[in-house]
Amino acid sequence: WWHLTSVYDVRENFHEGDTFEVDARPNGEMERVVKCIHLTPWLIKAGYIDEAEIVAMFLEQADDILLQSFRDTFPYIRDHKLLSKTAIHALEISSHDVPLRKKYSPLYVSKKREEWLNERNKAPGKLLTPGAQLEGPFSPNIESICVNDILAHFKPDEIVLIGGSRLKGYGTVDSDIDVWPLNELKNNSKMYPGSPHAAHIFFNAIWAGGMSVKNIGDIVKDIISLYDDAKTRRLSLERIESDLLQYRLLHKGFSRVTGLKLFETSSYLDMDGDCPFYNDEYRRIATMLYAKYVLIPNSNPY
After folding, report:
1. 184-219 pLDDT, tens per residue?
2. Rounded alpha-carbon distances, angstroms, from residue 139 to 17, 133, 154, 166, 187
3. Which of 99, 108, 276, 297 has the most CB atoms lying inside 10 A of its own CB?
4. Is 171 exposed, middle or buried (0-12, 13-18, 19+ CB in 10 A)?
């Protein structure tokens, strides 16, 4: 946790995912937060950090983004009496000159953004796999995807990768199926095999081949080995993680399956408390998913 206090996260990754297009971001920037700081109240509750450490960290730290993130937690800490009145008063006085976090708005509203906003506000359809175990395994969800029907649209020697919310357990009857033909990925300048930007596709999807494909296992092994690269490994893992835990389990999948819309922290908007990030069950599922699936097997194990 102390190590993560130096990591600037994209704030919306932990809320609704409203990051808008790259060219619609003012100066190419997105709103940042030190998200682990928003878990400070629970670390105090559990006894992992004490009042002296909290006060010392805030008074000695000069980084605005960290201090802004820390200040977001003050109302929750105060309401739940997690620190003494003296400590809270000292923190509030010390934070007086910390600038407010800059809130960005998109430079323009695209058609894609309009569609996303409409999708966000629309009531979800009926779940395809009610009672699905969101932490996996995902294999019981494959039946709802109808893989053979998808393969019927491709040549017998083609390989496709199939993923999306249906595979992950929170798909609805009107959810799209994400399908990526392998040959198209190979010719894509950004999403080619080995690209960290495409890691979530190659690791978080079903690999399916037509009747003429006999060596799909060898093909999978060869492509997965491309990710055993120390230079891009961290970015690849982050992409796998965000696909499984944030986009869209956190943003809509968890609430869709559990029916939970309001959380203990919903009124604490400075912490973006109106989202599942602060729910114990979400964090349990996220921990299980991370342990099981956010990994890149070493092609040359000891």
Report:
1. 999 999 999 999 999 999 999 999 999 999 999 999
2. 27, 10, 23, 11, 29
3. 276
4. buried
On whether the CB atoms of residues 32 and 9 are closer than 8 A, the answer is yes
Distance of CA 91 to the CA centre of its chain: 31
Helix residue ranges per DSSP H, 199-279:
199-203, 216-225, 230-241, 254-258
Note the Cα 218 to chain centre separation in Å: 30
CB 183 within 8 A of CB 224: no
Instruction: Compute the C-alpha angle 262/268/271, nearest 5°.
Output: 105
Collect all residues with Cβ–Cβ distance below 8 Å to 34 and sequence separation of at least 6.
4, 5, 6, 7, 8, 9, 65, 66, 69, 70
What backbone torsions phi and psi does residue 183 show, to the nearest 5 degrees?
A: -65, -35
Give dist(CA 235, CA 200) in Å, integer.
11
Q: Which two tokens stand for residue 138?
A: 């995902």
Please tell me the pTM assigned to this model: 0.86
The answer for residues whose C-beta is within 8 angstroms of residue 30's C-beta and 6 or more apart is 10, 11, 12, 19, 104
Could you give the CA distance from residue 247 to residue 178 in angstroms, rounded to a whole number? 14
Provide the CA 65 distance to its chain's centre, in angstroms: 20
Task: Give 181-184's long-range contacts (Cβ < 8 A, gap of 24+).
Answer: 181/154, 182/158, 182/219, 183/158, 183/159
- For residue 279 the two structure tokens come to 């729910």
Residue with tokens 């206090």: 5
Report the amino acid identity of residue 169: G
Mean pLDDT of 73-96: 91
